[in-house]
Design brief:
The chain is an alpha+beta fold and 236 residues long. The protein folds into two domains: 2-36, no CATH class; 72-235, no CATH class. 17% of the residues lie in helices and 30% in strands. It has four helices and 17 strands. It has helices at 2-19, 98-104, 110-113, 135-144; strands at 23-27, 32-36, 53-55, 58-60, 62-65, 68-71, 79-80, 90-91, 108-109, 130-131, 175-179, 182-186, 189-197, 204-211, 218-223, 227-229, 234-235. The radius of gyration is 19 Å and the shape is globular.
């Protein structure tokens, strides 16, 4: 209800600005920003948590967690085939079933997710204006929930000490992954990419992980060429 009220107020402010001063004033908790909107015939307003992001053939929900705006679902973009550096987005689906991509998101190799660049914070396969999270951004997320892994998980995920509460709104599913050609972990573990290469002495990647039976949060590392896992994007 609050989000609806804020949206209405925001639209009214925008309408007033358009009719009178041709400027839009945005009020943040610690600052104010005035935008010159003269000459615009139309404008769109994005409100994290209320607005959706259309990407490919899907509409993704958004969620505001602290000062961060995240997509509320794992990405499911591209075609189901073995990935290669050919300009197309390619994914695996758990057990090679498209229905699993629709529910849990696609599983991507790190190179494919990053679109074959190595810059931390790269857009990769995320929509324009979004990117694959950095180590610092993931740490901020972890700190916000007090390192409580259950706060990320949807309420129907996990059990016992690992039962999801989703107090953050992140709505994570225990999506499993693919390692060395074998699928495993569906219903047992969530693995999400971080856009920074690992430091484990060989070509490796960094991940954010949580499982079904504990409320722990893990920062993992794995072989870059063997793993495929989910991608969750954060707004620039």
């Amino acid at each position: 209800m609050k989000k609806t009220i804020y949206l209405i107020i925001f639209i009214l402010l925008a309408s007033t600005a358009l009719a009178q001063n041709k400027k839009l004033t945005l009020y943040y908790p610690d600052s104010t920003k005035v935008l010159n909107i003269s000459g615009l015939d139309s404008m769109s307003i994005f409100i994290c948590g209320a607005s959706k992001v259309n990407f490919g053939s899907k509409a993704y929900n958004t969620v505001l967690i602290g000062n961060q705006c995240w997509l509320k679902e794992n990405l499911d973009i591209g075609i189901m085939t073995s990935p290669s550096n050919n300009g197309a987005i390619e994914k695996y689906c758990y057990n090679n079933l498209l229905a699993n991509c629709e529910t849990y998101g696609g599983l991507y190799t790190w190179n494919e997710a990053m679109q074959y660049v190595t810059t931390e914070g790269a857009q990769g396969i995320c929509p324009d204006g979004w990117h694959i999270p950095t180590v610092a951004e993931v740490q901020t997320l972890v700190n916000y929930v007090g390192n409580d892994g259950n706060a990320y998980k949807n309420e129907d995920q996990g059990s016992g000490a690992g039962q999801g509460t989703n107090t953050s709104g992140f709505s994570a599913l225990l999506n499993g992954g693919r390692q060395g050609g074998t699928y495993s972990g569906l219903g047992d573990r969530a693995r999400l990419f971080i856009s920074k290469q690992g430091s484990c002495g060989y070509s490796c990647l960094n991940t954010l992980e949580f499982d079904a039976t504990t409320n722990n949060t893990y920062f993992g590392q794995g072989a870059m060429t063997n793993w495929a896992m989910a991608v969750r994007c954060i707004k620039n």
